[in-house]
Specification:
Layout (H helix, E strand, L loop, with lengths): L3 H48 L16
Length: 67
């Protein structure tokens, strides 16, 4: 004989477990996408700086110390 209360309880427990798992999966996916975007930006900057180095700032003349 089936227990309708046990069936409802297990159905609700399964629903909650799926929601928690879905939320965790979404957060993990978002973290991976953020990391990938950050790495792509860094890689682009490194390559851009390697091919097109920035001009060096002009050197300042040293001040003479009064004796």
């Amino acid at each position: 004989m089936k227990n309708p209360f046990m069936s409802m309880f297990l159905s609700q427990a399964n629903r909650v477990a799926n929601q928690v798992a879905g939320s965790a999966r979404a957060q993990a996916t978002a973290a991976v996408k953020r990391e990938a975007a950050k790495n792509a930006t860094q890689m682009t900057k490194v390559w851009t700086d390697a091919f097109f180095p920035l001009a060096q700032p002009p050197k300042r003349k040293k001040r003479r110390v009064a004796k």
